[in-house]
Amino acid sequence: MPANIVLVTGVGGELGGRLLARLGNDADLERVIGVDTSPPSRAVQQRMGHAEFVRADIRNPLIAKIITSARVDTVVHASTTCHPAGPGRRMAIKEVNVIGTMRLLAACQRSPLVRKLVVKSTAAVYGASSRSPAVLTEDSELIPASANGYAKDAVEMEGYVRGLSRRRPDITVTMARLVNVIGPDVDTVLARYFALPVVPTVLGFDARIQLLHSADALAVLERATLHDRPGVFNVGADGVLTLSQAIRRAGRVELPVPRAAMPSIGRVLRGARVVDFSSDQVRLLNFGRVVDNTRLKETFGYTPRWSTREAFDDFVQGRGLRPLVDGDRAAGLASAVLTAAATGQTTRR
Amino acid sequence: MTTSTTAQVIPLHRVRERATEPVRRAIPVEAPAPPAADEAPVLPPPDRAGSAAPSGAEDESLPAALGRLLGFLRHRLTGDYSVDEFGFDAELTETLLLPPLRVLYDKWFRVSTHGVPNLPAEGGALLVCNHSGVLPLDSVMTAVAVHDEHPAHRHLRMLGADLLFRTPVLGTLARRSGQTLACNPDAERLLRAGELVGVWPEGFKGVGKPYSARYKLQRFGRGGFVSAALRTGVPIIPCAIVGAEEIYPKLGDIRPLARLLGLPYFPVTPFFPLLGPLGTVPLPTKWHIEFGEPISTGTYEAEAEEDPMLVFNLTDQVRESIQQMLYRRLAQRRDVFRG
Fold first, then answer.
1. Domain B88-247+282-332, CATH among 3.40.190.290, 3.40.1130.10, 3.90.226.10, 3.30.497.10
2. Among the residues of chain A, which ranges form H helices?
């Protein structure tokens, strides 16, 4: 059944706001309502079409009233943040992630008109460790990396969503487990991380990184909203970059730090309000994580248009990151030196 | 371990063996000439200068190997290379990791390989080998053997313990060289992708076996490798490695120290820890790596891996054939160091 009246949560955020603008310009939708505690960015407000914004907290019972009075049939839960870009208050984020989700799901269960639920989740639910398989499928075990991180919140949140789909089997539930999103104009934790002039990495480890271009993330959420695609889907681009490779491509300087010193570095970066370097994040940089997107391509019917490498290069170019280390020039220099050493004379070009 | 009750006779000397199977070090004649990129050492040989460098930016008069090295360096410095989803980096493996290992392979252990035609030219296969040697040098040497002796220069994708991937530097190198965690999802994924996968099912029990238990195969795990092969329908190739079990004669084990360091064992050999770092030099034994006849798994019906009895029987069959190959090779061997 096509969606008609859509409610989007978390429109103050990066992806939520864009999704609201995209849906707001879709003439087939009768009504699009965006909900958040803070209004969407100015850019979104200017081009959000016929979408409306309601300032409401999803932890508040008011959300149930909005859902029933507006006769919402499709709920898109995009306010979950597993990788807050900047340092935020840990408890406040957990509140929105867990308690907010519970409230929202309770309201969905109550309203007989709700037919579809789209949840933006995260691939962090799989954790990252030396014991996890190299490539994770949707059926892999969910082992949160730590007992109290954002990944744990996401696992709990998914549990509540499964509970709702058990109690209301008539609701089409789509759960999209997004890998780290990157793009020229979105502010995510990895975007901030790779923008650091000196990038701390875990000494002796070179994780595999899988990324998702923000345009693809948006397209997947939009498609899940407009079409019925029940199930859990890993959403990640094709291909893999290693962390050192990504740093090299962005022209940054790598600073290997012993694993034991990582938490203190994280605290400094947090304290300086540069980037939120949670323990989940450190584990990701330590062991890396790659998910299998076969189900996304075959069952969901969407092939990411950007590969991990293209997405990263687009981010580097779009951000205008000026390379601190010019790999090309360094390679040219090295080749000149080696040539001179091998032939016994300097080359003139 | 066998299901039959009668005693089994292991033919120690294959009749035609000596005549028809010379030490197969050279690549078969009918095989196409190997691409120079894989074979050439990193340093330029003194007599071979003048061929054009592969990457255009370099000087024309440079030796090809130096040109390749510069190309490699450029790729590294600009991050312009690709790794697969397991983290395997073919360029790095061939340029940086294999050459030093090849010295160890050719000069130190003087590895002879037998039965290379048993390795499939393409498509997935599961190589199952005996494990030994305190440090898993046998797996590394098998990877070199498969890459260098196989006409298509296939890479052996090995399955390792999680301890390996927890170790700094080694864990990363393992991933870059195509290894991954020994678990069924990874094994099946590699086999489905048509890769040649190597597994050492004895695990730590095998690699840390005492000198007195050399060439006695330990328990073959829980047979997870058999169910992976059954599920993907790839053949199992038993592989016997002779010579590796004597490189570090493990006489004892300092358990408290092992526990303290979080290692599965802390070996005591005649030279280690007595001679300190010098004791970590492996003994220069002569090695033989034999690839046996493939055991087909494609003939079983679907869901065959759900039958534990079948899995156990197949596990025993593989184990038995490796043990037989080991005994046969050992009987033919005259000397540990000269083969």
1. 3.40.1130.10
2. 14-24, 42-46, 62-69, 90-94, 101-110, 150-167, 189-195, 214-226, 243-250, 262-271, 279-287, 294-295, 308-319, 327-343
